[in-house]
Amino acid sequence: MSRRTALRRLAAHEARWQISLARWVARQRIGVAPGDLALGYAAAQAALVYGLTFVCVVETVGVSVLLAGLPGVHAVMLVVDVYTVLTILGFQAAAVTRPHVLTADTLWLRDGARREIRIPLERIAAVRYDLRFVAATEKDGDGVVELRVGGQTSVTVELSEPVVAVRLLGRRETVRTVRFHADDARAAVAALRARLTEAGGGAAPETGGGAAPETRRATAPETGGGTVRQG
Asked: What is the pLDDT along the chain (231 residues), one digit of tens a residue?
């Protein structure tokens, strides 16, 4: 990728979180149409974001006092500090105003203002509650993408056909399994299974012992089981 393309994508990212900040203040969500179901995921990181914001505000006040006798330096540092605080709040605002969205035919997964993955419901083979704590040093790979929030994912979606996801700087990757977080993960799984049933997809709600083998495969038990990993 050229440097110009990378800069253009970074500028677009900056614009998205700034727009999200304005929408957050106005209590509006982005990309959620009537009839769509929004699946929030911002709560898991809220305490960390607000705590960091408080620390930055205290630091801003402290630096302003220390540099009171240096007007030029004080002005520069004030701009930098205020922009830092807005960036942190914009990170949370993007997560709040850009939730995951379940439409009639698509599962639209978003990672704040950074990236998104659109999955046609017809390509979903299985969905399950699957709580995982992931180390920050672990990388996506082998067709698996993890949209972590607060270092965790709680829903796993397996695909019958891959989709292509684009990262922030434009790198494309083929995705066969997506793990993401939802504030109410079990409700998100139930809603997704219900929507798949309505759409005639392969992953139907859990049924009794007489379910067909392919239905049982698509509705794995809603337990983390041995899949929980401590980061």
From this structure: 677 888 888 999 999 999 999 999 999 999 999 999 999 999 999 999 999 999 999 999 999 999 988 989 999 999 999 999 999 999 999 999 999 999 999 999 999 999 999 999 999 999 999 999 876 655 666 789 999 998 999 999 999 999 998 888 878 889 999 999 999 999 999 999 999 988 774 454 443 333 333 333 333 444 443 333 333
User: What is the Cα–Cα distance from 96 to 30, expressed in whole angstroms?
Assistant: 9
User: CA geometry: angle at 13 spanning 133 and 122, to 5°?
Assistant: 60
Give residue 29's Cα distance to chain centre.
14
Q: Give the separation between CA 179 and CA 144, rounded to whole angstroms.
A: 8
Q: Whole-prediction pTM value?
A: 0.80
Q: Which residue type sits at 48?
A: L
Residues sharing a CB contact under 8 Å with residue 140, sequence separation 6 or more, in sequence order: 146, 173
- Torsion sign, CA atoms 197, 202, 203, 206: positive
Q: What is the dihedral of CA 52, 54, 60, 61, to 10 degrees?
A: -160
Distances (CA, A) of 15 to 21, 56, 80, 163: 10, 22, 18, 26
